[in-house]
Amino acid sequence: MALNVGCSARPGNARDNKTGSWRTFRPVFDNEKCNKCGTCMMICPEVCISEDEEGYPQVDYEFCKGCGLCTEECPKDAIEMKKEEK
Amino acid sequence: MADERPEFFESGHRACGGCGPALAGRLIMKAAGENTIVVASTGCMEVFSTPYPETAWKTPWIHSLFQNAAAVASGIESSIKMQGRDEKVVVIAGDGATFDIGVLCISGAFERGHDITYICYDNEAYMNTGIQRSGATPYDASTTTSPAGKNSTGNSRPKKDMPAILAAHGAPYVATASIAYPTDMMKKVEKAINTKGPCYLQVHAPCCTGWGFDGAKTMEIGKAAINSGLWVNFEMEEGTVTKVKKVKRVPVDDYLKSQKRFRHLFKPEPKTEEIAKIQAIADKNAEKYGTDIVPKN
Ligand SMILES: Cc1ncc(C[n+]2csc(CCOP(=O)(O)OP(=O)(O)O)c2C)c(N)n1
Ligand code: SF4
Ligand code: SF4
Ligand code: SF4
Ligand SMILES: [Mg+2]
User: Fold this and answer.
1) In this complex, is the C-beta atom of A75 within 8 Å of any C-beta atom belonging to chain B?
2) What domains are there in chain A, each with its CATH number?
3) ipTM of the complex
4) Which label site among B59, B92, B221, B255 has the fewest CB atoms less than 10 Å from its CB?
5) pLDDT (tens digit, 9 = 90+) per residue, B133-186?
6) Facing B17 at nearest CB: one of A5, A11, A67
């Protein structure tokens, strides 16, 4: 007998949910100060900071919730939270 | 330098901004890798990562009940073994699921010796249902079922020593970690997964909403817990403590003051007797695990 188990979903399709709309503050990066340490990329709970071709952090604002964790943890003070304007 | 390992936990989940458990989920999966089957109990992590028909998980993932993740993992592991497959079975469960309602199933799985890794993300209360105390809630924390007030200073019992309970089952590897130290945490996840037999990892995962602090401070709170001695990062192999994170310990006051769940201890004036009891818990931890860095002279 075939057993059908509950509900299933396509791997990682949470990406359909654009959490960037939650944001009231936006992290803005200053590459002049950044030493490419990678901390922000490692600790973002939204997995939305990646590395650009030059090794600098690059945010996917479709998902960034503006929590400010990256800003708080950056050892170089290279990230600033700026209020979103409508 | 970015960590090149691929992600198996996706953006788009619905955790609060700055959620410690969300970061735990991400880091666990980065360390565990593709060849993993995740079993999740009911709780914040399960709810925010899988609102049907969406899922943040990119490996096979199954939702058990609140109480039986270890039993479901046991069944999956047994089946995989019979089929000659090699996926790693990893439970990711909250502290309520682990310290309270799941103990029976966990004890059974560890007694039977299944080759599973059981990871508890410890946010120190039942968050998903509105901040009720669990066996992992620290002494004097105010929760909705241990509210501080005229006749109470908050949770009246100390945190249960779950790692000791699992070490007593003969688990080959038992460890604690914190999302505040991602590299250490991921190493421990890998070690637990690659150690044969039932292994236990307990990850401190600060919850901004339930503990009452700004989500930007999640890492800072995690580090402060360790620096106060109220959380200890250690590894235990075959029942013996083999590694401990040493700290220059500071008084518990600042850690407590930084969170709403402990604020009643300072208002209207500091309840020095209660704070001293919490300090005594930290002192005992430090002595038990030898965490203090002793200045050389
Ligand atoms: C048998 C049973 N009792 C109660 C519940 C309701 N419930 C769902 S999640 C939860 C609390 C989960 O707490 P924890 O394991 O600490 O995870 P957290 O939400 O804190 O991440 C409770 C009580 C349930 N789902 N099943
Ligand atoms: S603000 Fe928060 S969500 Fe946005 S990039 Fe920084 S850590 Fe990620
Ligand atoms: S944490 Fe700061 S210094 Fe490090 S990569 Fe990110 S922006 Fe650059
Ligand atoms: S309540 Fe706490 S654990 Fe739950 S999603 Fe919010 S921050 Fe995370
Ligand atoms: Mg919990």
Assistant:
1) no
2) 16-83 (3.30.70.20)
3) 0.96
4) B59
5) 999 999 999 999 999 999 999 999 999 999 999 999 999 999 999 999 999 999
6) A67
* pLDDT tens-digit readout, B22-47: 999 999 999 999 999 999 999 999 99
Name which residue sits closest to atom 5 of ligand 2, judged by CA.
Answer: A64
Closest by alpha carbon to B256, among B217, B204, B221?
B221
Contacts of A45 in chain B (CB under 8 A): 15, 17-20, 22-23, 26, 218
Domain spans of chain B, in order of start: 20-289
Pick the CATH number of B20-289 from 3.40.50.200, 3.40.50.10300, 1.20.1510.10, 3.40.50.970: 3.40.50.970
Asked whether A66 lines ligand 2 (CB < 6 A), one says yes
B188 CB within 8 Å of a chain A CB: no
CB-CB contact of B55 with B49 (8 Å): yes
pLDDT in tens, B188-199: 999 999 999 999
CA–CA separation, B240 vs B297, rounded Å?
Answer: 30
